[in-house]
Each structure stands twice: as C-alpha cells, then as structure tokens.
C-alpha cells in the first residue's frame, strides 16, 4: 500500500475527487487515502458508491491482517474517504481525477459540469488510456488545467503513472500532478497525447497480434500464452491478459489507436469484436478467450477448447542418442540439456578444436551448477562424460535425433541438412533450432522431408523452459510425437506452431520492440521512460531497449526483416533508427554500444 515519502515535498493537491468508482476508481481512492489525502468519491450509481466503500473496507482489513496497517491507521484511512452521487461534492477539491467509461460523450459531459463546480485553479485529470486528452481539454472552459493521469490496474500495487500533457496544458498543472504521483509512492512518466500513450501504446498492439494469431488457428490459446510467459518471462500470456483487461476495453483502445495511426497492427482483430458483441468480455463476464469459474473469478475451468490429455495421435520413435551440430553458446547449451537428461550426446563442429571448446563450455556451466549447490560434482562429471566432442558429422551415423544449432543463415543450414541426410541413419529425426528461417527449406534439402522438424530452444538453453515445436506441411506425425516426448524427457515445455516467420514468440515480440524504437525515433518518449513504463506498467522483466541491447540490434534487425518480408505488412518495416544503429556498428552490449553505452570488459 502506498504511503507518502517523508523526504519528498508534499504536493499542494491535498483534497482529491475521484469521479467513477469502478475497480480503477476505487483503487485510486485507496492509494490517495493511504497517502493522507482527503478523497471525495463520486459515482452516478449509489450502488457503485456503496460497493467502493465495501471494497475499501475489505482491502484495508486485509492490510491489517498482513500487518501493513494498524486498526487505528485503517480507521483514519477510511475516515478520509467520503462518497456520493453528485458532482457538486467536488467543489472544494484541488484535483479531480475522472475515471468514467471510455466515451468522449460521457467524459466531456463530466468536464463541462465540473467547469461549473470547481475553483478555476483546480486541476482536472482524465484517467483515459485510449481517448485524446487534447480533445477533452479543448471542450473545457479552462483547457490549461486539463491533463491525463493514467494509473495502472490494480492501482494500489502498480507503480507506474503516466502524466499526459496536451499542447494546451499549463506546466504548473503537470508539476503539481507529478509531485502528487511521487507523494503516492508512484513513478511518474511524462508523455505526450497520443492513443495508448507509452505502455498501452506498445502493449495493445502486441495483444492485438496475439488475438489475430489465435483467430488464424496458428496456435492454441494455451500455447500462445505459455510461449510468451516462458519465452519472455512475462507474468501473463497475452490472451489471459486480454481477458483480465476486458476484451471490450481492449477493442476500444485499439479502435482509438487505429483511428490515430492507421497502422494495420492496431486494427482490432475481428475476434475482439465478435467476443465483445457476444458479451464474452473476459473475466468480468465469466468467459472470454478462456472460461472462468464465475463472473469476476480468475480461476480458469475446462471448456470445449481445452486440450485433452489423450496423448499424441501417433507413437514416437525411440531416442537414446542425440547429435548436436554447432559450437556456439546455443549448441553447447542444448548438448548440456540432453546430457543432463541422460541422453548420449555427440557434439560435432567444423573442427575438433571448436567441438572441444564447446564441450569445455558445458563443463564450466556444470561447474557453476555444482558451485550453486544445484548438482553434485559426481553428477556433473557423469553428465559431461555423456558428451563426445568431434570434428566430423560422420559421427552422427548412429544418432536417433540430430539437432542443428549453426549460424542463422539459410544456405549454411541447407548445406548442413544435405550432409545430415547422407550421414544419419534411416528413421533418425532431423531438427533445426532456427528462430526465423523456414523449416521446410531445410527439409527440402534432404531426401526425407517427413523426418525434419523445428525445435526452437531459447537462450540460455539450460535455463529457459520453452521449446517451440515447428511442424512443416511435410512433417510426419510420428516425428512430431517423437519431439514432444523428447521435450518432456528433457523437462522443457513444448508448444506447437506452424512453419511461418517468427513462430509464436518472435512474431509477437519483435514488432513490439520495433514499435518502441519508433517511439524514440519520433521523439515521443525517452529510452528510460519507455523502459520504465513497460517494466512498471506491463510487468516486463526488461524494458524494450534493455532487451534489444542484450539480444543484439543486428539479430533484431534480421528478424524484423524476415517478418516484414513474409507478412508484407507496412507496420512491420524495421524502424530506420534500428537500421542506422546497425549500419554504424552499434549492436548492443556485445559491441559496448547499442541504444545505450556499456563499459568495455
């Protein structure tokens, strides 16, 4: 629960009216009261105002139970909140925060009425995340005092507040609201007026693409959500998040974004309209992309779309030994994963020296695990003994599964698959770890395309739990079953997807990263503000520019180009700023400079 910072100058905004007492308005009221503000809660519905009071009583009681508040502090907090249904109650407020439904008509009516109620110096803030603050301000008698104050749900827990200025907003109003956000223990980010602002502007494009991916039946809802959680470290998958936000809310935000940008990535996926009009708006309705125990519940229950645990339709082929082709970090990581699971591993590279170096890298990784108490020295030694390093692919003659992890270059991979086709025994499964290239192109380089499949591991392979299993139109059912069984044995979570650019994770991740670059390119927000917004407002483990510098700008650009070339969507064209940085040799941490500069090691 937010409390005022003792060493921060208090904002002059001491009495705050909150108009609209739904979930967000109630949360904002709690944050304000916890920070010592007098709060006037206003809602057109008496029942909603009473519901707000009950929610505050329950929330603060939980805080007492957890030792975060004393009974006296709770009583004082609740006493600072009054509720009613008449806007005239806001007459003495220093700040009014409007959190009414996302409708220009409703919000403009509230601002017109407030003009006749509040003092001329009272600041008026809208909590919109989709509508134009400028348009709302222009209709006010005092547009200079109108701005946006966008909290994130749940307001008591989420640290980010986007402070949105229009061209009409007075700097003094921005300063007052920014100071208030700091007093509340929040981290304010200053942004300009455009639909979605920073966090939602990046988030909703990604959510929309996930909905479109599901609608196209490219992957199941469970696999899309698991892929983004496990592949990107996100707290929730995109379809589960759409259900939490509200499918209708998401559609409204995207409509506003598309009206302003005309970017096809923001054009709401038809399924959002279909679900909204059917009343299947997510958790609040008890059903959206998923089905829930009851309206308002977060507990998912089985429905007709829930995957059945009947096992694969085909029986997999036996796999005892695995060949791993390559000498880089990914190859050594995959070799370690298989050896830890008890498979015999042949680690082959273009030379004996490179292969031995890759095996040595595995040894160092295992030693680190021993040092951290994750395995015994004996287990590490026996694991390493399962790996045989070699400088020739001829040693793949008896492997049951060959996994290539060589350079992300189609011609290099095709040549390798031609070699594997000649070397590997009949019935061996041939897998590529490509993250962006067509698996079928590797398959067609062999005389047995039915035996070829994609196994996209994530880096670092020993730590990352996800494997994208990529079937081509030629992949045999028993090959797919084999790889699913192998993933279970190596304790990886397999998700199924088809053979198209980016698969699940990269197809959703990289357009989001590209859009972040466009924001900086257009001078809409700074690197630091965008990174902070996505970590604090979206729960991302890293901001987009931190992640770009880690992945490598050259790698990111290559994937963006593949996505743009395959889907032919103008919105997927790589941001010129990204191209310029790559051309200048600024590739991220590996070169000491990308979007930020790093100390040379």
Automatic annotation (TrEMBL):
Pathway per the UniProt entry: Lipid metabolism; butanoate metabolism
Keywords: Oxidoreductase
Pfam family, one: 3HCDH
InterPro entries cross-referenced by the UniProt entry: 3-OHacyl-CoA_DH_NAD-bd, 3HC_DH_C, 6-PGluconate_DH-like_C_sf, 6PGD_dom2, NAD(P)-bd_dom_sf
Residues in 3-hydroxyacyl-CoA dehydrogenase NAD binding domain copies: 15-193, 322-499
The 3-hydroxyacyl-CoA dehydrogenase C-terminal domain, residue ranges: 196-292, 502-598
Domain of life: Bacteria
Family: Belongs to the 3-hydroxyacyl-CoA dehydrogenase family.
UniProt protein name: 3-hydroxybutyryl-CoA dehydrogenase
Native species: Streptomyces griseoincarnatus
